[in-house]
Amino acid sequence: MSLDALKSRLPEHAKDLKLNLSSLARETLLDDQKKFGTFLAAAYAVGEPETLKAIAAEVEDKLSDDARTGAKAAASIMGMNNVYYRFTHLASTKEYRTLPAKLRMNVIANPGVDKADFELWSLAVSAINGCGMCVDSHEAELRKAGLTSEQIQASVRIAAVVNAVAAVVRAEDALN
């Protein structure tokens, strides 16, 4: 399955999502590694099988093995961190923010790909998972690395569309 097959799977009421998938796949603000790594990290974050399979197939020849592994690692570690840090941010007891996390996060320091790419993928996943604390942290790192607001926004636009596509596919499957 590819993005074209995934788009054909979407019903007419999701026409905007089809159009957005097409335009984001042609996005030029991000190089291919950043762009397609974001697609893959977002697909792993949402975990809907059809969306994940289509995007994984689409990026197969567009990303190196290291980049595919890095995008998956960003989704994996943010799946944990977004829950933990969202809790520390939302809990009324502020003491949790001062306690050590005591969670392994080695991949963040050594992602096996360009650090800015990993941060961008982590930001996209954090946006999907709704962790404002992580969004702020990754956005600050991306700024330090020289990424523009438009580039950062492009990754979040990809994450938003992948998330919405997965939700529609899941909903349509529930009806059938």
TrEMBL record:
The active site is at C131 (proton donor), C134 (cysteine sulfenic acid (-soh) intermediate). It catalyses: N(6)-[(R)-dihydrolipoyl]-L-lysyl-[lipoyl-carrier protein] + a hydroperoxide = N(6)-[(R)-lipoyl]-L-lysyl-[lipoyl-carrier protein] + an alcohol + H2O. Keywords: Antioxidant, Disulfide bond, Oxidoreductase, Peroxidase, Redox-active center. Disulfide bonds join C131-C134. Its EC number is 1.11.1.28. It holds the Pfam family CMD. Gene3D superfamilies: AhpD-like. GO terms for biological process: cell redox homeostasis; response to oxidative stress. It is an enzyme of class 1 (oxidoreductase). One of its GO terms (molecular function) is peroxiredoxin activity. Residues 98-175 form the Carboxymuconolactone decarboxylase-like domain. The keyword Chaperone does not apply. Belongs to the AhpD family. NCBIfam families: ahpD, ahpD_dom. Antioxidant protein with alkyl hydroperoxidase activity. Required for the reduction of the AhpC active site cysteine residues and for the regeneration of the AhpC enzyme activity. HAMAP family: AhpD (MF_01676). This is Alkyl hydroperoxide reductase AhpD. The gene is ahpD.
